[in-house]
Structures are given as C-alpha cells and as structure tokens.
Amino acid sequence: MGILSWIIFGLIAGVMAKYIMPGKDPGGFFMTTLIGIIGAVVGGFIGSAIGLGTVTGFDLRSFFVAIGGAIIFLFIYRKITKN
Question: Which of 20, 31, 52, 82 has its CA 20 to 30 A from that of 66?
C-alpha cells in the first residue's frame, strides 16, 4: 500500500479505536490520525508475528488488525500521558 493509503486506513482505524474506547485525549484530528497509523503498523506487525498474515490492502481482516493495533496503541498512549 502507498503512503496515502496508510494515512486513510490509519485515519479510519483511529476513528474506530476512539469510538470503541471513548475518552478525553489531547490532539484532536491529528492525534487520532497518528494513533490510527501507528496502530495499523503495530497491528500489522503483531498480526504477522502471531500468524494472521500480512496487511497488504484494504480487506476486512486487515481492517480489524489495524483497529486492534490502534486500540492497543491508544491504551498505551493514555497510560503514558495520564500523568
């Protein structure tokens, strides 16, 4: 996937992660996009490591892996910035 595809995919994953885990987070739209992109990459690495395959395009499995990664990253982000 190209960089623009990762940004769009990350934005969607970030929005879904914030919908699943609502809360007050600083940064707004930019931070949501960044959390989604990083989460999609993290989810892709974790998915590859546990045998779910690679994230190669826009499909349902990749979407759920990206959302899962974004949720994990959002949880870690909240723990770090809580103080």
Answer: 82
Domain that holds residue 66: 3-81
**For position 40, what pLDDT does the model report?**
77
Residue 40 CB partners (closer than 8 Å, separation 6+): 6, 9, 10, 13, 55, 65, 66, 69, 70
76 three-state secondary structure? helix
pLDDT tens digit sequence for 30-67: 777 787 778 777 777 777 788 766 666 677 777 787 78
3-state DSSP assignment of residue 58 = coil
pLDDT at 11 over 60: yes
| Count of helix runs (H) and strand runs (E) in the chain | 3, 0
Residue 1, Cβ neighbours under 10 Å: how many?
14
- How many structural domains comprise the chain? 1
